[in-house]
Design brief:
This protein is an alpha+beta fold and 566 residues long. Helix content is 37%, strand content 13%. α2 crosses α5 (157-170) and α15 (486-514) runs antiparallel to α17 (538-552). The longest helix is centred in the C-terminal third of the chain and has 30 residues, at 418-447.
Amino acid sequence: MSHGFSLTDEPWLLLPPAAVGGAARERSLRTALLKAHEFGDLVVEVPTQRPSVLRQVLLPVVLDALGRPADEREWLDWFTRGRWTPEQCRRMEAYLDAHCGRFDLFDPEQPFGQVAGLCTAKGETKSVGLIVATAATGNNVPLFASRTEGDTFALSPAQAAHWLLHTQCWDTAAIKTGAVGDPKAKSGKTTGNPTGPLGQMGVTLLAGTTLFETLMLNLPIGSPPTAADLPQWRRRESAEPRSAGTAQWQERVPEGLLDLWTWQSRRIRLFPEVTDEGLRVTRVLVAAGDRMPYTPETEPHTMWRVEPTGGRSAGKSKGSSTPPRRPLRLQPGKAAWRGLDALLAPERQSREAGEKTSGFATSKLLDQAGALASDLGEAYPLRVELCGVAYGNQSAVIDDVMFDALPLPLAALEADSDVCAALLEVAQQAEQLAAAVNHLSADLRRALGTDPIPWDRGQRPGELVLHALDPLVRRLLAGMRGVEDLERIEAGQLAWEQLAWRRSWEVADRLLQAVPLQAFVGRSISQGEGKPERTHRVSLAEASFLKRRAEILHRADADRRNRSQL
């Protein structure tokens, strides 16, 4: 029996209304795109599903149906309307009608994002929990969990569509099932599979106030796609020999943005069945898919680590006209604002000015937003969402899923702006305060005759400082929107420093209150032959911290001195 579920016309995208307070409802792809101005941001089960849906479906349909703005003037013309024009709606409607059959999740011949008839030599399938990143499978199922590997795991068609797209973007590496027709399969397995393409970078998405604005902010300006650059559903229709509709796969470089966004890193087949709860997906087959040798520089959704120029290491890459690039990955437990030096590194301006680079380059889309800042308005409520996955042993398991969102002032994307300089200084001050508290902790431990906490073991007290400062930094980022006057920027920095002064002392004071009496006497530690001994005691450690805090938060220190003289 054949089952159908058209992503074009069946509701599967959970979207709230743009107006605050309304309940989110599932919408079809057609409704979500044509009425994008009426909806807020996508509601997903895990944050990593959002870039998967945007890149694998929403953005490619818009780009393939409408093309992309050729220059900044055309992009602004689209954006400032706040919605698609009637002509653009007509073109997207026609596109969805023409390719409607390719968006059927359970089509018997060409199911969306899958390979029809994909099977193993012995006809094995696995529980659909295999593609659910939050579900433990195989040996990872806890011994005393409420569910066992033998229990049935069922997904609705809407859930299965989300996890299908998620698997194409974020799947784990290592061994995959060897499918019939895969020439590289041996003994029923295919080895050497990398992670999904997004698993190799920290994903940087831009979000606006409506779904329409989010789509536009993530649509790069440039020339239209080439004839070879096709989304995966059109590659199957073409005579392209590297079609994603078979079990065969290749290692190749994407032809362009459409090919990159809809990259089929796995060959997948969903197995639906009718249950008492309706149509459900209970079994799945995941085999090896296309392999990308490296992340191309056309990737718009990541920040980059580049070789610094103008420094001592600049001459390392001899014979290379451009510095090597690697996608910047997120670090578990590290707030996004601690990476402002990468977020606010507009390569465009440095390249035009011939200046040295800092070792980072922001994403192409953030660079594009910075160029449009004056037209969008400095007070535009831009939000930057960062997400990534930390993989475990041999990248075969998921250890952690990282997500953070920041309100980012558009003025900060201009490298020579006062807002940019202020925010970079604030991030640096927070790191310096954490380091100062770590030094205080080390000195107190030495006064007791013990070694400092190793940097790579346990929790250092500096992390408590960063945790306490986190809401202050986010409040400052939101407050800097639309601020251009240097006097107001300085006032904001002074307010930040005054609050940081108190928060850092609260953490330091807890350390000082916890030390036993013998630490006040102190200890003298030899510095080596011919060198005087160094004494460590509580009073010296406290004085060193207070001096360092005053140096870091110089505005707050100067303000306190001025007040004391009144």
